[in-house]
Amino acid sequence: KTREKKRILSTQAKAIAENVCMSVHKVRKVIDQIRERPYEETLMLLELMPYRASFPIFKLVYSAATNASKNKSFNEADSVISKAEVNGGAIVKRLKPRARGRSYPIKRPTCHITILVRDSSKKKTEQDIYLENKYIFKDRIIEKYSEKEREKKNGSKNKSTWFPTW
């Protein structure tokens, strides 16, 4: 199977850290604080946070901003964290020797962190708008329901077919 790669918008830059040895829940606690914040404010927040997860995220945000300034010539002061997500990675399993020749399993969870930085001063192109709308999930049931609601508003008097009319 081939996996289609999502393209990044021209107003965004990306940085990914994979297999970070930390629980997803602990990293999400920090990521939720920095989402949709300006770049400089985010760095100050991460420096002052007392969590262990803040240091890898700090390095990643710094890397994403550097990618934006070097590769796409963005101004770091105008950068905003547009998307920050954490996904679970592989669980590293080890055995710890215990008394009487027994062993206890040790599970070390890992996670993948993705940070997208966008330049708030630049405007989106037509291609960017197309790429944003391309990956939106469309649910058929919700679409049918919304069509029925539109028909009701328009005044069409179609009787339902599932109930017999004697």
UniProtKB/TrEMBL annotation:
UniProt entry keywords in alphabetical sequence: Plastid, Ribonucleoprotein, Ribosomal protein, RNA-binding, rRNA-binding
GO CC terms: large ribosomal subunit; plastid
PROSITE patterns: RIBOSOMAL_L22
Gene Ontology MF, one: rRNA binding
Gene Ontology biological process terms, A to Z: translation
Keyword flag Flavoprotein: no
Coiled-coil residue spans: none
Main localization category: plastid
Alphabetical list of InterPro entries matching this protein: Ribosomal_uL22 (IPR001063), Ribosomal_uL22_bac/chlpt-type (IPR005727), Ribosomal_uL22_bac/org-type (IPR047867), Ribosomal_uL22_CS (IPR018260), Ribosomal_uL22_sf (IPR036394)
Stored SUPFAM superfamilies: Ribosomal protein L22 (SSF54843)
The keyword tRNA-binding is assigned to this record: no
Compartmental location: Plastid
PANTHER family: CHLOROPLAST 50S RIBOSOMAL PROTEIN L22-RELATED, LARGE RIBOSOMAL SUBUNIT PROTEIN UL22M
Similarity annotation: Belongs to the universal ribosomal protein uL22 family.
HAMAP family, A to Z: Ribosomal_uL22_B
Identification of the protein by name: Large ribosomal subunit protein uL22c
Protein source organism: Horsfieldia pandurifolia
